[in-house]
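note to self — DONT lose this again. spent like an hour looking for the file last time. sequence + predicted structure for the chain T wanted, 314 res
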Amino acid sequence: MTCGPLISPTTPGRNYGTAAIFDPQARDLVTFAGFTDQGRFDDTWRFDLDAAIWAKLQLDTYPEKRCLHTSSYDALNHRMIVYGGQTNGPRGDVWAFDLHQNQWADLTPDNHPAGRWFAASIYEGREHRFIIFGGNLGGSQTNEVWAFRLNEGNWEQLSPTGEGPSAREGATAIYVEKENRMVVFGGRGASDFNDVWSLNNLARSTGVEGDDNISAPQSFRLLGNYPNPLKRSLPFNETVIVYELAQPAHISLTIYNVIGQPVKSLLNHRMAAGQHRVSWDGRDETGKKVSSGIYLYRLQSGGSTVFKKMILVD
C-alpha cells in the first residue's frame, strides 16, 4: 500500500464543506461548491483520476452557492444527487447533475422537509431513493430520516422502530446493498460521537436492528437500465440493466427490437436471490452493432414477465 499526491496544473480553490461523488464510467471525481477564504462558491469540477487533471465545467444552470451540503451517486440514472447545505441559512433544495450531459436539474418539490446542513446521505437502489439522516436545522440538530423518491420526485419521512441515534450533524453514512441497510458513524450533537448505527430493511418497513438482520428483495422487479438512452459516442458505450429476485430462480433476459424480434439473449440460467446487474453493448448475437432506435428488454422468471424500453443512439 502506497500513498502520494495527484498533482494537476489547474486546481479548485482551497475549500471545505464541499460534496463529491465518483463517476464510475468516466473515472472522475466530481465535486460541487464549498467554502473558501473568499466565501461560498457554486462551481462544479471534474478530476480525471487517470490523467490527474482538474477541469472546471462552464455551465449555464447550476445550484446556488453553498457549503456543508451532501451528495450521493444515483447508479440507475448515472447522476450526482445534491441536497441542502448552508448559504445564509439551511437549504432544503435537491439537484441532480447528469454525468453524461454535464447538466444540472432542480428536482425540489413544493413540499419538502425543513432545510438542513451537514446531513449524511446514501443512494438506495432497490426503491431508487436518496436517503438523508440528521443534520443541522439552523440552530439545532435532528435525527430525522427522510427519503426522496427519485422517480416520483417526492419526500417521505421514515420512522425507524427500536432505539435510534441521537440528534446530530456531520455524521457519515454508507449503504450496504446486499443487506439493504444504511450504516451511520459519528457526528456532532451535544458532544462529539464515535458510535455506529444500522438502519435496516430500508426497502421495507425501516427498522433499527442488529447486524445479523440480512434481508432480500421482497418482489420480482425489473428496475431499469442506465444510461438510457445509450449513446455510442460516449466513452462508456454500454448500458446496465438492473433487476432483483425475491428468491433463487431460473431467469431469462432478452433484448428485442420494436417488431418483437429477439436481438440478444443476455441471460438464461439460474440466479441467486438479490439485486443483479447485466450490461449490454448494443450488439446482436453475432457481435454486430445494431441500429439506433427503440429496443425492449424482457425479464422472465417462471410465470412472471416484465418488459421495459430503452433507446440506443449513435
